[in-house]
Amino acid sequence: MKIARINTVAASLCLAAATLGVSATQAQAQDTLKLGVIAILSGPGQPWGQALQHAVEMAVEETNAAGGLDVAGKHYQVKIIAYDSKYRPDEAMSAANRLVLQDGVKFITGPVGASETIATQSVTTANKVLTLTQGWSPRVLGPSMPYQFRVSASDLEFSGPLMNWVSQRLKFKKIGGLFPNDELGQQSSKQVSAVYEKLGIQTEIEMFERNRVDFVPLLTRLINQGIDAIDLDGNAPTTSGLIVKQARGMGFKGPILRSGGPAEQEILQVAGKEAAEGIYLYSPINPADPAIAEFMNKHKAKYGNDVNGFAPGYYDATRMLFEAMRRAGTVTDAVAVTAELEKMHDFPGIQGKLKWTGAERYGVNRQIDSAFYIMQLRDGKSVAVAKCSYTSCSDL
Prior knowledge:
Blueprint: H1 2-19, H2 24-29, E1 32-39, H3 46-65, E2 69-71, E3 74-84, H4 89-102, E4 107-109, H5 114-126, E5 130-133, E6 148-150, H6 155-170, E7 174-180, H7 183-198, E8 202-208, H8 216-224, E9 229-231, H9 237-249, E10 256-258, H10 264-271, H11 273-276, E11 280-283, H12 290-303, H13 311-328, H14 334-342, E12 347-349, E13 352-357, H15 359-362, E14 367-369, E15 372-378, E16 381-388, E17 393-395
Parallel strand pairs: 1-3, 1-4, 4-5, 5-6, 7-8, 7-9, 9-10, 10-11
Antiparallel strand pairs: 2-3, 11-15, 12-13, 13-14, 15-16, 16-17
């Protein structure tokens, strides 16, 4: 009798849904917003991928716990569909195809890397999928990719003020850089060399295949060419730690700086406190800021490890995306959401008041505009020493 009653109720629900012109499955789907994630969940770039995934999860869980995303009078529970890109363009492309063509996703956070982003942007652009990426290449932003936004500054934005500030204090004359032989490394090596040249500093460049672990031959060539400093640029965090460890192990005593993404924890873990002492690093956040400290504490309580510096950017960008959906009144029309996201100004993020910039450089306002910091490793801790805009840095 109970089974018959349940079947009768189910039939009534299906009939009601059919009367409205939708199936029971479709009626349920209208209450769910699918959010795609393409992250590096394995390999040397895993800390960045985890930063992306954890940040999106935290923003989504907060939204769902508050009753869901309220758009046009309807509440949506947000569901994350995540795939591992393994820091490889082919894997990122495969993930994008699954999200867009199989899962029906209209909004994606990721990929992290420039090569990955360039590989995926044909399918996301053609299908009008709004993408929040981090790819550090000028080729990931432009009028031909109208639905793609970058959630952190690239070296085009921060390398000039950072290198100027650091070089004035360290007074080096010839610097060596090691870069992965892919889109990120090829673009970054050109940008880094151009900035140092303007500062009157010579550069020596060595390229390597990603996933390499023995850097002694490359470091030997650089040291023999008379470098007096090393720039780690945007190498994967673990890779940067290996370079520092091997350079110091070879007896290199010159200054080391990182004009790329955050990697303090990994450098300290891999290279050790003594080898890492004094390194200057780019950071998108200041851990001493109260809003960032609160986020870091929540992250550690949830995941058991310290937050990577890129996580707050993904967290803020996800919340900006949700707000753009509210303003657009839709969770399906990525074109309308894109228009609302682009014109968003002074959004109250944990990184400060946020907006989009970049029209002068890229032809579209798709580059996040936020402050960044220069950190220095001192006695195993990361200390903020300067706060910067995209034009200059000031001592803290």
